[in-house]
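Annex B, item 7. Sequence and structure tokens for protein A, then protein B.
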Amino acid sequence: MKVLVASDKFKGTLSSAEVAAAVADGVRRVRPDAVVDTVLIADGGDGTLAAAVAAGFELVPVDTCGPTGEPVVSGYARRDDTAVVELADVSGLIRLPAGQLAPMTATTRGTGELIAAAVAAGCTRVILGIGGSASTDGGAGLLRALGVRLLDATGAEIPEGGEALAAVVTVELESLRKQFNGVEVVVACDVDNPLTGPSGAAATYGPQKGARPEQIDVLDRSLGHWAELVAPDLKNSPGAGAAGGVGFAALAVLGAELMPGIELVLELVGFQDRLAGVDLVVTGEGALDEQTLHGKAVAGVASAAKAAGIPVVAVCGTNRLDDGRLRAAGIDAVYALTDLEPDVSRCIADPVPLLQGLGERIGLR
């Protein structure tokens, strides 16, 4: 029996690697003869960098700045001329000091610094995962790190953050265009929000970044002004509102292609090759729900495995999908922590033994 465990993280509880290790331990307890392989996956947000490194990419450390300007040691993953950059690891909510939200001033400059370092080192293809952003700056910080100058009416550089975009009068792109000649950018993007409006970056994602209703209005107007200066025809493009407007900056200035995050990650980790000889694929995430079916890692893994004719089961903390929805997604069975421990708080506090128990059940199926 050969089992491949390819689970996403259990957000806020366990990493992809920790989930895979616990499930694999459980399977081996009851099936010591089984060959259990693990592969780290992510949907383009946090965990993307780790998945690339685990798949053989080299981690290149870079000293950069976090979303509120504090020093951060991050890096990009490199193989040949391809670099993988994870926005969440440098400009994400997880990098806010003491978790202090900064909706009006947070910046994506650090992500741009990682891209700049990769391009300076000779990378000609950049894969950018943009989930988990702490800012709503329209990708302006990212672009400024790549040489773009944003000037106000006096000719001075504007401050960082989305609120300051309202003061931009001049956008100078020449330096970026020179250094990005011949560089391909592919963005892992799983949302189709436009840049502005009721379903735009500020209205949809601003609240989780700490923006109050009046601040959302300010940010939305600032993003609209930013779009009018850079590429007004792209502000309503699907995905332009991703990561606080990074999708817009990538499309409008970097000429990027937007692709589903899980598709990019599965390509990076060589998932198709890892399926050879496999009898069962185990995937999973913290909660199986309606979002799971729309571009999330579990759905991507299940689709790829089913296309190869391999049965798929999922592990999770809680399952909110009925059997019909699961089967339509290519998932044959679900094993939830709440099957073993109904108290969700206990599942969150000590998930590893429970996941090992689910691994035992999977090994005996």
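Protein B:
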Amino acid sequence: MVAQQTLEDRTEDKNPVIEINNLHKTFGADNHVLKGINLTLNKGEDLVVLGKSGTGKSITIKCIVGLIKGDEGEIKVLGQDIMNLNTKELNKIRVKVGFLFQSAALYDSMSVRENLDFTLRRHNEDISEEEITSEIEEVLESVGLAEAIDKMPSELSGGMRKRIGLARTLILKPEIILYDEPTTGLDTVTSKEISELILSIQKERKTSSIIITHDMACAKLTADRILILKEGVVYTEGTYEELEKSEDEWVRSFFI
């Protein structure tokens, strides 16, 4: 009850920044992955989405930024229904929504500096060289990797690549961040560091986030609220503490 009250305190006066209503997505003739997803992300909230493999977690957040187009339903991002936006309008929304891919998706032929430089110039043609340098140094400092500025991605560990991927997302100052399995493939210590970084970013930058994960330690540390998907729909939701004590055997299986 105490944990729930804390969440209400944080979100009761804040507007939703993402609203998904009755989202469906089918691949091929009969692979109906999303079967009516309903989801709300409140401003300033870290929402963790759990579910077994193949339940549509990653598909859902890719639909949010238009990387995959939903077949039916409504997706409102910062008040705009992205299902009905043209490419130019959608790109304006995407700048406000950072997406951290599982692989970090860095350009291997570019140094860390060049990866961040490319991202800034792509979205701001008028930015000066001094501003670029300042922004790059500031964002690398915020993820604890100022010394990696001239390294190539091949010289970085998995955890460092995740941090640089996050830096590239943060450099555009998004209002929303979507994390797709941010700790996958990392050791326990590095996973905890990434989870703590997600939490500090939320507090310092006032971001709203959806975190797709199988890592229950990450979920426990970062989640204000958790949704669990099952067979293409939201099966249940609650705080970590509430779901851990659920009388539903299937729900409890995530916490063992």
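Comment on protein B: Residues 1-13 have pLDDT under 50 and may be disordered.
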